[in-house]
Amino acid sequence: MNTSPDARSSRPDERPRSVSCRLYHRPESSRIARRFTRATLRAWAVDEVTADKVLLVVSELVTNAVVHALPPVTLRLSRPSAHVVRAEVADGGPARAQESGNAHRAPEEHGRGSDIVVCLSVAHGCRADHGTVSRWADVGAA
After folding, report:
1. Which of 1, 82, 86, 112 is the least buried, fewest Cβ under 10 Å from its Cβ?
2. Separation between Cα atoms, residue 54 and residue 58, nearest integer Å
3. d(CA 3, CA 102)
4. H/E segment holding residue 126
5. For the chain, what are the domain ranges?
6. 20 φψ region: left (φ > 0), alpha (ψ -120 to 50), beta (else)
7. Fold of the domain spanning 16-140
8. What is the helix (H) or strand (E) element at residue 98, kind and residue range?
């Protein structure tokens, strides 16, 4: 796991508005991403209810990238405003069905992650750019 602040403040008492974490393309990356997210949200003084929503969204986005996409996987957390936490996961684009690990799964064992992200976010989306795909979700903070 490699972490870095994306935007540094000129004042030492200000927190970075954006941080990122490069993750291994492995199932345990969701757990690592949640740990990184929890520490970041605590540093940003995000309330517990919002933090729980963001943690679930991050878990779903990272799991989706690991199961359905090619490496690399990068998690980025940002605060576009005082009332929003954005979780964004970039990956290497869609994997073929036999590479994604879903070829032998029953339909009832997957497919709920997108619905969870939609329900917990105030906005969400996806964009493709130069061989990478980024999925993001904005979670409203109290």
Report:
1. 82
2. 6
3. 29
4. strand 123-129
5. 16-140
6. beta
7. Heat Shock Protein 90 (3.30.565)
8. helix 97-100
pLDDT tens sequence across 17-30 = 999 999 999 999 99
Question: What is the spatial distance between Cα 126 and Cα 137, in angstroms, rounded to a whole number?
Answer: 9
Whether 78 contacts 102, CB under 8 Å: no
Q: What pTM was estimated for this model as a whole?
A: 0.82
Q: Yes or no: say if 18 and 75 are a contact pair by the CB < 8 Å rule.
A: no
Element (H, E) at 125: strand 123-129
3-state secondary structure of 139: strand
pLDDT in tens, the chain (142 residues): 555 554 444 344 456 799 999 999 999 999 999 999 999 999 999 999 999 999 999 999 999 999 999 999 999 999 999 999 999 999 999 987 655 454 455 555 566 788 999 999 999 999 998 889 999 999 998 7
